[in-house]
Amino acid sequence: MPFSGYPDFASIHIAYCPGERVVELKSLKLYINSYRDRYISHEESVNQILDDFVTASEPLEVTVKGDFSPRGNVHTVIEVHSRPSDSQKNT
């Protein structure tokens, strides 16, 4: 639900190359559904999903894409990427 209070709908696409852990689909669905009653922007929600996914599974690479339903004739697609293993090599 965005700041306006009106509900938004989106398809969330997650593509990842797993490290040593994988994410159970049921847990992922319950997590995504927890966003139903949150007042959060499209951009913030997709970035938060990415951050939480990286923390939970430590993937080698991950892309999260939120494809949001049109609102006021504006169709929003937010896509974010992470390669945690690359950032660890640089430290």
Task: Explain how this protein is built.
With 91 residues, the protein is α+β, with helices and mostly antiparallel strands. The chain has a single domain, classed as 2-Layer Sandwich (GTP Cyclohydrolase I, domain 2). The protein is 34% helix and 31% strand. It has a three-stranded antiparallel beta sheet with strand order 1-2-3, with helices on one face. A hairpin with a 2-residue loop joins β2 and β3. It starts with 9 loop residues before the first strand and ends with a helix. The model has no long low-confidence stretch (mean pLDDT 86).
The largest beta-sheet arranges its strands as 1-2-3
Give helix % range. 25-40%
In the predicted model, the low-confidence regions spanning at least 5 consecutive residues are none
Count of the separate structural domains: 1
**Known CATH architecture:** 2-Layer Sandwich
Describe the structure concisely for a colleague:
By secondary structure, the protein is of the alpha+beta class.
Strand-helix topology:
Elements: E1 10-17, H1 25-33, H2 42-57, E2 61-71, E3 74-82, H3 84-89
Antiparallel strand pairs: 1-2, 2-3
